[in-house]
């Protein structure tokens, strides 16, 4: 079986590369650097990408997108990662497509063009203290008051809240319903009275956030799909997020840069790459990256047919986030102390150790990997659900980070 891209897809890749390099000038790349959060530099880059028509390449044409397949979007994402383009992954790959499928015409008209212009960003408001992996146990409430809802409660691990324009918020609207049935999804503006946030610093050096809702009022038009229909949206968005978290883009550039460094850095008896253990380490990494590339191709081909299941999305997320840790660790062994130095004069500019720390926190994004293994077993392999006490022990290890 031929796993290479078709000539048409290779042509598309080259076109993406040319257009992305035109937008992501050396000055813009330097400005965003290794930033993982928002800010003026990232916002300016996203607007420039939007103006160039480089956001939403796989969205339907009728909503302003490029109408391409999920696989072609993956090709684009690979090229975007190589030039360090700060794509709004959560907004573009998960919230936008969910709105396309379930949003009202008013919501589509209001939000979709703004997302494609790179001027609107969302953060995900799901996890709470005590409701992370067991997300359906959330306690944030939304009570109807005429044609408005009044929201009270708090969330944690709301990544990007400081820079977001809106929170994609799950709240309980029917306390008497079964826990999965009484949840509603709201679009909450971050400038709404009563909304506030507090940073929660993490090992990768980036912040996630506590968010607080104190009598926050939103109109009925802020409800997506319908009252008490939120769980459908939560699972749809998380499925897309898990697949996106498995993106290969970060691994190949790290490998190629390390290979170049090892090939050009001298030792007393030759180059670093001349050492057998270095050759073995780089060979292992290359094989792992190649295998993961095939998994990504399979997942995105399946997405293109509209048949991506929860088990496949979770498998891509688990394998990708854990492989990124493993690869970064192995490449750090090759580079040694030089791999943890930062600054423009440092080899690899600290990218390896930054990638390793970020990969650790990504194992929690979209649902902790312990929970994802449950999903793989149940949805992917048809195995029985784990007993509640066993799943609770996994929940203690981490939460959804969203």
UniProtKB/TrEMBL annotation:
The keyword Oxidoreductase applies. Residues 123-215 form the Acyl-CoA oxidase/dehydrogenase middle domain. Residues 6-118 form the Acyl-CoA dehydrogenase/oxidase N-terminal domain. The keyword RNA-binding does not apply. It holds the Pfam family Acyl-CoA_dh_N. SUPFAM superfamilies: Acyl-CoA dehydrogenase C-terminal domain-like, Acyl-CoA dehydrogenase NM domain-like. Keywords: FAD, Flavoprotein, Oxidoreductase. Residues 228-379 form the Acyl-CoA dehydrogenase/oxidase C-terminal domain. Belongs to the acyl-CoA dehydrogenase family. This is Acyl-CoA dehydrogenase. It comes from Mycobacterium simiae (Mycobacterium habana).
């Amino acid at each position: 079986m031929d796993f290479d891209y078709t000539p048409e897809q290779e042509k598309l890749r080259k076109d993406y590369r040319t257009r992305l390099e035109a937008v992501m000038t050396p000055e813009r790349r330097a400005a965003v650097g290794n930033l993982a959060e928002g800010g003026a530099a990232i916002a300016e880059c996203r607007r420039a990408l939007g103006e160039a028509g480089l956001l939403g390449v796989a969205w339907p044409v009728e909503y302003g997108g490029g109408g391409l397949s999920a696989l072609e979007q993956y090709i684009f994402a690979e090229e975007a990662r190589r030039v360090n383009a700060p794509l709004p992954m959560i907004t573009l790959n998960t919230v936008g497509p969910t709105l396309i499928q379930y949003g009202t015409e008013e919501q589509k008209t209001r939000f979709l063009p703004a997302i494609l212009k790179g001027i609107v960003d969302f953060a995900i408001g799901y996890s709470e203290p005590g409701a992370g992996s067991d997300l359906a146990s959330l306690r944030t409430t939304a009570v109807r008051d005429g044609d408005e809802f009044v929201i009270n409660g708090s969330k944690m691990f709301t990544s990007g809240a400081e820079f977001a324009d809106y929170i994609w918020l799950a709240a309980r609207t029917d306390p008497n319903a079964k826990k999965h049935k009484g949840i509603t999804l709201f679009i909450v503006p971050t400038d709404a009275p009563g909304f506030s946030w507090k940073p929660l610093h993490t090992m990768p050096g980036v912040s996630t956030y506590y968010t607080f809702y104190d009598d926050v009022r939103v109109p009925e038009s802020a409800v997506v799909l319908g009252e008490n229909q939120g769980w459908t949206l939560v699972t749809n968005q998380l499925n897309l997020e898990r697949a996106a978290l498995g993106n290969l883009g970060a691994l190949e550039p790290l490998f190629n840069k390390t290979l170049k460094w090892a090939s050009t850095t001298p030792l007393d008896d030759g180059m670093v790459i001349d050492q057998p253990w270095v050759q073995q380490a780089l060979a292992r990494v290359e094989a792992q990256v190649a295998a993961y590339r095939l998994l990504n191709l399979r997942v995105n081909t399946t997405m293109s047919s509209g048949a991506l299941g929860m088990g496949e999305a979770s498998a891509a997320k688990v394998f990708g986030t854990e492989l990124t840790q493993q690869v970064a660790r192995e490449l750090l062994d090759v580079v040694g102390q030089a791999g943890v130095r930062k600054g423009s004069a440092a080899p690899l500019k600290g990218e390896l150790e930054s990638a390793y720390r970020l990969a650790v926190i990504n194992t929690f994004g979209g649902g902790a990997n312990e929970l994802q293994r449950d999903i793989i077993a149940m949805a992917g392999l048809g195995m029985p659900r784990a007993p509640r006490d066993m799943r609770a022990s996994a929940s203690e290890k981490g939460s959804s980070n969203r």
